[in-house]
Amino acid sequence: MDYRKNLFGGAPSISFGKAKTNRKNMTEAEALLWNFLRNKKLDGNKFRRQHPMGRYIADFYCHEKKLVVEVDGNYHSNPDIIKYDRTRTFNFNLDDIKVIRFTNKEVIDKLSWVLEEIRKELKR
User: Fold this and answer.
1) Are 82 and 76 spatial neighbours (Cβ–Cβ below 8 Å)?
2) What whole-number distance in Å separates Cα of residue 120 and Cα of residue 107?
3) Contact 74, 87 (CB under 8 A)
4) In 3D, which of 41, 80, 39 has the Cα closest to residue 88?
């Protein structure tokens, strides 16, 4: 996908409905992090939540900095999901989009650290 030309990378229409559902059903960790990313609160960077990108939906996406932030629950430790996540990250990286991941526990227990890690990536 060429996200420079199309913010959504040609995402199919079904993805927009799924993203809307995901926004209504955020995890506790996603909701907590969103409070610090929304409305350009993190150093003036605009983030979108549950953003369709090609065949994927990113938890949080900063288009200007080409950064995807994922917040992963326990099911991401499943070997099949690990493989899927690696493929997904690889595909984003092909389009010069950086993906960083945090666990729900990290967001809830170490929010300041998570925000600082995101800041570091935004400065690159």
Assistant:
1) yes
2) 16
3) no
4) 80
Flag the least confident range among 13-22, 34-43, 93-102.
13-22
Q: Are strands 56-62 and 48-53 parallel, antiparallel or unpaired?
A: antiparallel
For residue 65, count CB atoms less than 10 angstroms from its CB and return exposed for 0-12, middle for 13-18, buried for 19 or more.
Answer: middle
Q: The tokens of 46 are what?
A: 């605009």
Higher pLDDT residue, 80 or 1? Answer: 80
Rounded to the nearest integer, the mean pLDDT of the chain is 87
Longest dimension (CA), the chain: 38
d(CA 122, CA 32): 19
Q: What is the pLDDT of residues 23-46, one digit of tens each?
A: 788 999 999 999 999 999 999 999
